[in-house]
Structures are given as structure tokens and as C-alpha cells.
Design a protein that fits this description.
The complex is a heterodimer of chains A (117) and B (108). With 117 residues, chain A is an all-beta fold. Helices cover 0% and strands 58% of the residues of chain A. In chain B, strands 2, 4, 5, 9, 10 and 11 form a six-stranded mixed beta sheet that branches. In chain B, strands 1-3-8-7-6 form a five-stranded antiparallel beta sheet, with no helix packed on it. The radius of gyration of chain B is 13 Å and the shape is globular. The chains are: A mainly beta (117), B mainly beta (108). Chains A and B meet through strand 11 and strand 12 of A and strand 4, strand 5, strand 9 and strand 10 of B.
Chain lengths: 117, 108
């Protein structure tokens, strides 16, 4: 495997289900990100981890719970979601989060297409 | 007002045409500007990365930033069907703010 991988690629879940999205990066990066991409809306940054520590949490509802057990893996745990949470969830990684205020190039995975019924 | 505004399109142009994609941003403190390309069923990939005002050229692609008007542009020369994708602009400092993306189709 190379780059950033995400599983599953597609997920359909009911509002009472609990599921997890998985992301793995094979690039030796220290920062990982979760984004939400909805039609006709800007890419929304949800969480950022740098060296396994959460450094950004953009007012995301608590029904989304991230976990970063090591610098190569990132999870997004989902529970009691709403239909408006249906979207493409993208994971990304970068060498560092930001050094001296300079953003690094982010490498994105293919995303998980989530549908909440 | 959104921090980064981008016309979502769709935009269709014939093969070989020059394509102009544009964004505006509201935060004058933004110093870094990027263009990402996203093919269908794929994640975005970085196309161009610029700092402050000015132009940057890479092959058929030119990125232009005008900080005085807070305007970001991406020009594609000699457009090819393989350029058909969604193009996302992003700007910021430590943290990037993305536009909605413009869906571009190059017609053979």
C-alpha cells in the first residue's frame, strides 16, 4: 500500500448504529486530518492530529469521535448520526501540521462515502 | 461572508482552450495559497502552492495571486480531456480554508 488509504470506501448506517472509519498513511508523516466534503459546500476541517496529539477540533458534534493511536493510523468513530452527516469523509496527512505558521502539503486518501439513513 | 468563495460551476470548455478558474478570499492575513485537483472518486491532490502575491508556472498551469484584491486564479493552457476534474482553491496560514470547488469538463 502506498500513500493514504481509507476503509471502508462506502458505508451505509442507520441513525442508531455505531461504526468507525479507518485511515492509514504510509508516508512517514507526523500530522493527520479528518475533513468532511458535502456537495456544494467547502471542504470542512474536522480534526487535526500532530504527533498523535489533537491540535484542532473545529466545533464538531460529539457524535464524531476521533482517535489517533499512532502517527500512521487515524480513526473516526461514529454514533447516533443524523441524515445531514451523509457526506464524503476524507483523511489527509502531511509531514508536519505547520512549522512557523507555514502549512505543509496535504496528501489525501480517496475518502469514505457515508450515507446515514 | 465565506472566507473563501469559489464558483462551483460546472464549467465546460472545448479541448485546447485556455481555462481560468478563480477564487476570492476575505482574510487579508492569508499568506499561502494552494490549488488542489480532485478526480471523480478520488481524494484531492496538490497542483500548485504559492506564497504571497505573484505568479507561479508549472507546465500548462499558472497560479496567480493578487493580494491587493484578494483574488486567486488558476490558468490551464492547451486544456486536455484529462484535466476534467474538480479544482479546489485553498488559502490560509497554519490552517487552510477551502473553497467549494469548481467542476471542470474539457470537451474533446
Amino acid at each position: 500500500e502506498t500513500g493514504v488509504t481509507q476503509t471502508p470506501r462506502h458505508l451505509v448506517m442507520g441513525m442508531t448504529n455505531k461504526k468507525s472509519l479507518k485511515c492509514e498513511q504510509h508516508l512517514g508523516h507526523n500530522a493527520m486530518y479528518w475533513y468532511k466534503q458535502s456537495a456544494k459546500k467547502p471542504l470542512e476541517l474536522m480534526f487535526v492530529y500532530s504527533l498523535e496529539e489533537r491540535v484542532e477540533n473545529n466545533s464538531v458534534p460529539s457524535r464524531f469521535s476521533p482517535e489517533c493511536p499512532n502517527s500512521s493510523h487515524l480513526f473516526l468513530h461514529l454514533h447516533t448520526l443524523q441524515p445531514e452527516d451523509s457526506a464524503l469523509y476524507l483523511c489527509a496527512s502531511s509531514q508536519e501540521f505547520a512549522v512557523a505558521g507555514v502549512p505543509h502539503e496535504q496528501y489525501f486518501g480517496p475518502g469514505t462515502r457515508l450515507t446515514v439513513t | 461572508q465565506k472566507e473563501v468563495e469559489q464558483d462551483p460551476g460546472p464549467l465546460s470548455v472545448p479541448e485546447g482552450a485556455i481555462v481560468s478558474l478563480n477564487c476570492t478570499y476575505s482574510n487579508s492575513a492569508f499568506q499561502y495559497f494552494m490549488w488542489y485537483r480532485q478526480y471523480s472518486r478520488k481524494g484531492p491532490e496538490l497542483l500548485m502552492y504559492t506564497y504571497s502575491s505573484g505568479n507561479k508556472e508549472d507546465g500548462r498551469f499558472t497560479a496567480q495571486v493578487d493580494k491587493s484584491s484578494k483574488y486567486i486564479s488558476l490558468f490551464i493552457r492547451d486544456s486536455q480531456p484529462s484535466d476534467s476534474a474538480t479544482y479546489l482553491c485553498a488559502s490560509g496560514n497554519e490552517k487552510l480554508t477551502f473553497g467549494t470547488g469548481t467542476r471542470l469538463t474539457i470537451i474533446p
